Amino acid sequence: MKNPMVGLLSWRRAVAMTVALPLVISLAVMAYAWPASRVAPRDLPVGIVGTGAAGQHAVEGLERSRPGGFDFHLYPDEESVRSAIKGREIYGAFVVTPGSLTVLQATAASTSVAQLLNTSGRQLAADAGASAARGATTAARGTFVSSAYGEPLTEAPAEIRVRTVDVVPISADDPRGVVFSSALLPLTMCGILIASLLAMSNLHMPGWRRVMELVAACAATGFGAYLVAQGVLGALPHERVATWSALSLTMLAISATCAGLITLVGPAGLGLSAVLMVFVGNPFSGSTSAPELLPKAVDDIGQWLPPGAGANLLRGTAYFGGNGTGGQISVLLLWSVLGLAAVVLGRRTPAVAYGSPGTRSHGAGDAGAEPYPHARHAAER
User: Fold this and answer.
1) Which of 26, 44, 162, 325 is 20 to 30 Å apart from 137, CA to CA?
2) Are the C-beta atoms of residues 137 and 66 closer than 8 Å to each other?
3) Measured between alpha carbons, how far is residue 239 from residues 33, 84, 243, 347 in Å?
């Protein structure tokens, strides 16, 4: 007689292969492709230096070209706006003067934003030049001044010069920021691997020892990543200790969260960690562009997860002297503390560590196990 369970298992396998697996792959592709396809400025903080009508015209021109794309901050002079860029208050600025426009950018903050500001500055200068030409033509029609040849004299408007200044340049060894953005996914996967190896081995190790091993492994891995990124590729040129600490803290936040989930819910926690960190945290991090270039919901979610907070923290320590990194450090510490607490407290729960009391097996080698009733009766005989 044919076993009905065989047919049931076959149907389950067929459904998993033809429905569940393609669905998971489609969602993974969408998680990475959708934010990348919607890259555009959304309330991108930029500065404007220009008194009177010049600065107002610059704001109006930028707003017309990209409605809602910029969040404008006005500064009295170029020195103050440079300080704001170095403090990570803004991504760049437009300095408007008669006959010239200076675009201040920071390729270390984002090469994509720097290119966007440069393009917007040139477009703004072209529009201003065209507007001045139209005004000159109108004035010439209203006032006819004859030359010696009887032809009207009109003075051509001066061309607006555009100058670009990189206030905080990215490393010359990584001019497009490829190394920086490409390192996030391997770091995330390595953090999950560390947590899974630690959580699924040494099951009887005390919680505090597991925490110590997790911290030591993340510190060592962060140091190795720094040696490769800077020593070999030259992508993280400044603040060595702070940059190494940022890498290690990012690894710890990812690993502690994964280890905590595995401790609390078992092997399913590994899958939850992969979804949270790899398929949500990485594509929503904005590491390849900037958080303000992603859709609004994606931006908010990404910066509250360890990959996004870690990428932003790494930029701050490697190029901006740690300015503007308080929020990222808080997010990473929060995930780290919650994950480590789950590792320590979860190991103390009998149902998690050793199985529930009602289902625990009593083998012959259990020192504290009470003999089964039939064995006790046999002993009494």
Assistant:
1) 162
2) no
3) 34, 20, 6, 38
Band (379; pLDDT cuts 50, 70, 90):
very low
Q: Are strands 92-97 and 70-75 parallel, antiparallel or unpaired?
A: unpaired
Residue 154 has which token pair? 């009109």
Helix residue ranges per DSSP H, 266-319: 268-273, 296-303, 306-319
Whether 240 contacts 318, CB under 8 Å: no
pLDDT digits (tens, 9 = 90+) for 243-253: 999 999 999 99
Single pTM value for the model: 0.79
The two three-digit tokens of residue 307, written as one number: 């990959």
SS3 211: helix
- At CB < 8 A and 24+ separation, what contacts does 36-41 make? 36/283, 36/288, 38/294, 38/295, 38/298, 39/112, 39/289, 39/293, 39/294, 40/66, 40/69, 40/293, 41/66, 41/69, 41/70, 41/113, 41/116, 41/292, 41/293
